Amino acid sequence: MDMKHLIPIFVIFFFFMSTTSASVALAPSSSDTQSFSFSKLEGDQTFSILPTDVDLKLQKICGETDYPIECLTTTVPFLDENVAIIPVSILKVEIDAIHNKTKEAIDKAYEFSMNPSTSRLLPLCLKTCINNYNAIVESKQRIVDAISIGDANELSMELSHNMEHVFACEDEFKEAKIKSPIAELNSLLVKIITNSLTICVDMIKF
Ligand SMILES: *[C@@H]1O[C@H](CO)[C@@H](O)[C@H](O)[C@H]1NC(C)=O
């Protein structure tokens, strides 16, 4: 694990340590099964944290991804208890999460483009982002089909394209020297897509 990955985990760790309880509920109405207790675990990494009262199989799957916290927070609330916790079922939930977060990003981008802006370039950047997000939304059916026929090449190609679409959106703001108003969602999207690629490439035996 390099520093790029370690830093957000430190931040998250100290954030939770600084709250009165080490447990965090994912949703206001969440039941006990949706509460995480974070604890420090010894592992082959010098320092890692993983929720301890989450399904062990899910902990193992998410633990092998680059962004375990995002893997858990985007899947735990959406796991049907009748669904087997195996990499392919987690991948399907992550694909749904990518779809939902992309739609959220489209809404945000529209919202920002309606606001009177300090930069005349902002609406242009947002327009590119919306086009890229739409391409991600359109890829969902191809991804679902690729999973169902077990086409790992198609699947990783579609996911890689989606990642490029998100990076290209952020690059628009960089080039225009504008602070990205959707950096947080884009960062989350990149993390979920990265995790999906890891699950698809390293964990599923197609
Ligand atoms: C995605 O959104 C749909 C519709 O709002 C919802 O039913 C589903 O649980 C969401 N899934 C994820 C993983 O966010």
Please state the CA-atom Rg, rounded to the nearest Å.
Answer: 18 Å
Identify the CATH architecture of the domain at 85-206: Up-down Bundle
Bound molecules: 2-acetamido-2-deoxy-beta-D-glucopyranose
Largest sheet: 3 strands, antiparallel
**Shape assignment:** elongated
Write the CATH fold name of the domain at 85-206: Butyryl-CoA Dehydrogenase, subunit A, domain 3
The CATH top-level class label of the domain at 85-206: Mainly Alpha
N-to-C SSE string, H for helix and E for strand? HEEEHHHHHH
Q: Write down the overall mean pLDDT.
A: 82
Number of strands: 3
Terminal-residue CA separation: 27 Å
Instruction: Output the number of helix runs.
Output: 7
Portion of residues in beta strands equals 5-15%
Structural class per helix/strand content? mainly alpha
Q: Helicity, in percent? A: 55-70%
Question: What is the CATH superfamily classification of the domain at 85-206?
Answer: Invertase/pectin methylesterase inhibitor family protein
Q: What is the topology, as strand order, of the major beta sheet?
A: 1-2-3
